[in-house]
Specification:
Number of strands: 8
Strand content: 15-25%
Order of helices and strands: HEEHEHEEHEHEHE
Helix content: 25-40%
Number of helices: 6
Radius of gyration: 17 Å
Distance between the termini: 38 Å
Shape: globular
Length: about 220
């Protein structure tokens, strides 16, 4: 989906106190951005309009969160949803940061000195054409980059059957093991799930939501 340029998006983000404008400058130092750097750090890659991060971050003040997306036009909507969510709870967004980042180049912003306890990838672009599959956020070359700083689990959710099945191969190639998987997340019990507009739309269309939890082999 092509996102129209919105000239007001970047100026609005420039005034946001929890937006990180130069993520590459934070490599190895992400925890230092938070008042409580000792807390677990969770990141969402490809946060889109913020439907997920605006639910989970305010509900877990004991966790630090970073949400990243490639487009100002998307991130500014995530900013607004976060501001509304924290305001409704009469909270300050101390435990969340957002940043513009091309996830394909995540190694420019995160390195082995960044310790992340969880990565979320929700409904990423499935890139169905063969020539584009290397751009998938769950592709082997991406997973290898995540392993440099991931010391915990990766939670992956999608409506796309092909992406889900082929991702099992990517995880194996990159040295991950699958801890849990399901082809129908909504039929499961006991799994924490925050339903976004995208997820509701797919479900209303009759699509099953696929989900897995993976971790690097040998992870601490």
């Amino acid at each position: 989906m092509r996102i129209r340029h919105k000239p007001w998006a970047k100026p609005e983000l420039d005034t946001c106190q929890f937006c990180i404008h130069e993520p590459s400058e934070q490599a190895g130092h992400w925890r230092e951005l938070f008042p409580h750097p000792e807390r677990p750090l969770y990141i969402e890659l490809g946060c889109g309009k913020g439907g997920f991060i605006s639910q989970i971050a305010p509900s877990k003040p004991e966790i630090n969160f970073v949400a990243m997306d490639i487009k100002n036009e998307m991130l500014v909507l995530a900013k607004r949803k976060l501001e509304q969510a924290y305001e409704e709870r009469a909270m300050s967004p101390d435990n969340v940061r957002i940043a513009i980042q091309n996830i394909e180049r995540i190694d420019t912003a995160w390195n082995e000195n960044d310790r992340v306890e969880r990565i979320y990838i929700n409904f990423c672009n499935p890139w169905p054409k063969k020539k584009h599959k290397k751009r998938r956020l769950t592709h082997t070359r991406q997973l290898v980059n995540y392993k440099k700083f991931l010391h915990g689990e990766l939670w992956f959710k999608t409506d796309d059957d092909e992406l889900f099945e082929e991702s099992f191969e990517y995880f194996a190639e990159a040295g991950f093991r699958i801890k849990f998987s399901t082809h129908d997340l909504h039929s499961e019990t006991g799994i924490e799930n925050y339903v976004t507009e995208h997820e509701k739309m797919f479900t209303d269309e009759g699509k099953k939501i696929k989900f897995l939890i993976a971790e690097p082999i040998g992870a601490e």
